Amino acid sequence: MTVVFRRDAGLVGRESELAFLDQTIAAVRTGESRVLVVHGPPGIGKSALLEHVESAATGMRVLRAVGVESEMELAFATLHQLCVPLLDSLKDLPAPQREALQTVFGMRAGTPPEKFLVGLAVLSLLSDASESSPVLCVIDDAQWMDRASAQVVGFVARRLLAESVALVFGARERGQDLLGLPELEVTGLGKADAGTLLKAAFHAPLDEHVRDRIVAETRGNPLALLELSRELTATRVAGGFGLPHAGTLPGRIEQSFVTRIEELPPQSRLLLLVAAAEPVGDPTLVWRAAERLGVTPPTALNDEIDELVSFEVRVIFRHPLVRSAVYQAADDEDRRAVHLALARVTDPRVDPDRRAWHLASAAAGPDEDVAAELERSAERAQARGGLAAAAAFLQRSVALTVDPARRAERAVAAADASLRAGDLAAARASVDAAERDARDEFLRARAHLVRSQIAFSAGLGNEAPPMLLAAAQRIEPFDADLARETYLQAWGAAALIAADGESLMAISQAIRDLPPPDGTPRPIDLVLTGYGLLVTDGRSAAVPVLQRATAVLSDLPAQDVLRWGWVGNGANAAVWDDEAMRQTYVRAAEVARGAGALTLLPIYLASLGIATTWTGDFAGAATIAAEAEAVSAATGVPIAPHTKLLLTAMQGKETEATELIATTIEWAGQDGQLMGVTTANWAAAVLYNGLARYEQAIPAAQVSARIAELWVSVWVLPELIEAAARVGEDGIARGALDRLAEAAEPCDTDWAQGILRRSQALLSDEIAAERLYSEAVERLGRTKLRPELARAHLLYGEWLRRQSRRVDAREQLRTAFDMFVSIGMDAFAERARRELLATGEKVQKRTVDQAAGDDLTPQERQIALLVREGLSNPEVGAQLFLSPRTVEWHLGKIFTKLSITSRRQLGDALPRDE
């Protein structure tokens, strides 16, 4: 008996799934976006459901792609399938997006684009296509997408909002890049439906108990029911004797296909093997390769092969398990022969990478020519931004390389590509191979550098900095520039993630011992020298050098911003230059946005958000925090909510801040994000000082003050001094003041001196205190740090009241109260109000006046402000990683909330003096 697996068999008993999918299509027709991951084991009917979606999408533009297991090493292969029909619209994209797609698809040479810029380009393509008709994108076998494509489509799926686009995946399991997306799990058929399907496949009468056993063992898997029924005969099922055992379902189903394949004539098996090894599904290519092996249509085609594969516009296997069964059933010699034939018929000019992969699969042993081809393929993949593909090519190249020195060189390259692709296990394996085969010290040093960077990426805390230091020292005799960049990375790692100061001191001493660079010092030289001095000789010695660095960091070349700016930008804060700090962070965020560097952008946004919070622009800080959260959600890379922590603490939102602080301390501690824990405790100290709970502020501040890091550990000192002074812990307060003076005195900036004077006043006698408070108010009044100025007025007023100078105290406290209210610092405002009441003045509780647009969400405010500045929807979308259509959707909501009807009215609705 012959049973052909039909797609419609996969729809038996799927009424609820079909209804849900129909609702999805209906929603997209009305202008909504939908994303759905249809997942379940092999043979469960996913592909049939996806085909139903396609057939239901009448009047819609359908884009289809299929993940192919043998193409997982080819960067952007699946994405290219999906986007080919839209490439005529590339000309309409903004230049950076257009060039990014052209680069990854090999249509132009250029700098490898960030994958998230590619994602934004695909989002724009789909958004533009949906303007003329709703769009359905179907990606089957998504578990076999190449990693670059998976990252991009995962990004796109998370950014779809107001486009008439449906993105539907079919997958055996949800991969990392699809986690968190809406899902539809497809499970086995119920007893009745499975029985119906089995009865249709097996026409002879079935004993009820035998039927139930088959259904139970197959777990209602439609393909298993159909395939296993092929092995049944009337005598085998009589009484249930001789029934095949289901075993592991995918393996059992695949074995069923293997049995059928083994029964085919040799020519037919060879044709199937060619089709299985050729991932594109190009029938011309398949037949050309088959002919080289002596296979012709008359000798190979028959009814049995038609049940397994179809040769039409594309070569399509009846099920992915057929492809894997064909390939696994073949012997090694046949597989190599087939790959060699496919390599010979693949045009090296049109598709050199696929040809190289076939040659590698055809190699029976080491082959330098093929290894060199793979190395060139890796270079092309890297040029397109396909780091995972480059790593795969290089790893295979290493395996085919004979010469140990050349093998070690390629292994280092493979380790570096694997590291940058995020595959730390593969990177370690390649480093092991490189260190085993390396014949010269420079190569061993480079291997050690990659191993050190792996440790840093893995968040190994105290282990990474000394490893990076050793790598820098080993590289220094061979490549001074690479060594200096490695020293800076080591210093940054020690400052940010090391729990103690030993590594930081050792690295700083090594930096100080470096020979001076030739010629005029570059920005990296100034930063490196200044950081080294900061730790070994103190702030007085470091400040002149770091001030020179500060002067050039705001104009740092974009490539340096992206490579080491995350470490270097801290020079501004180290010399207490708040204006330069804001300017540098604004530009760094702009560079990261423009490059699509979304893994780096949240780091710069965290710094910019804190700097903005310090100015009292809480609405702006909330907008930055919202952008950081959105980017983190889009990339799937969690980062501590630095801005939101400080913002909610300054606002005095006790419930929200307390919960956020506790949550951050817990998960950031587990995730190895020491800076997240540090910022959370700093925020706790600010919160409790605002609430006048000084006993709780002290231990929180002490946690942040103890670490080796040189920024937050200093910024938290005024909180510790204030809290300790208020509860009479003079020893703690004076120890913290000594550290603050050491950090601030060498920096003659209004920020440094204003904070220092305010803190000194808390521990000074009557005469000195008044002078210090007055100087603090004067100094901070020349900055944009409004919250710090308001707190200086508060402390001055509190001191005056305790000196029984009620009239003078009221003046300072009233100023502080009004400032706190206008900024939105409710806890500090209440503290000032209580002090005013103690002076005998009556004062009502007040909160900041409701300004126009305050009911906008942070993202809506961000969009509104950009549009107010004259940016078009595509320009706003490019900056915020949204599609133009999503921007337009948000604008509709913004106009409603602001009671306006046009973009021109935003200038009046949101005044620029906000």
From TrEMBL:
<dbReference type="InterPro" id="IPR016032">
    <property type="entry name" value="Sig_transdc_resp-reg_C-effctor"/>
</dbReference>
<keyword id="KW-0547">Nucleotide-binding</keyword>
<dbReference type="InterPro" id="IPR036388">
    <property type="entry name" value="WH-like_DNA-bd_sf"/>
</dbReference>
<protein>
    <submittedName>
        <fullName>LuxR family transcriptional regulator</fullName>
    </submittedName>
</protein>
<keyword id="KW-0067">ATP-binding</keyword>
<feature type="domain" description="HTH luxR-type">
    <location>
        <begin position="849"/>
        <end position="914"/>
    </location>
</feature>
<dbReference type="InterPro" id="IPR041664">
    <property type="entry name" value="AAA_16"/>
</dbReference>
<dbReference type="Pfam" id="PF13191">
    <property type="entry name" value="AAA_16"/>
</dbReference>
<dbReference type="InterPro" id="IPR027417">
    <property type="entry name" value="P-loop_NTPase"/>
</dbReference>
<dbReference type="Pfam" id="PF00196">
    <property type="entry name" value="GerE"/>
</dbReference>
<dbReference type="InterPro" id="IPR000792">
    <property type="entry name" value="Tscrpt_reg_LuxR_C"/>
</dbReference>
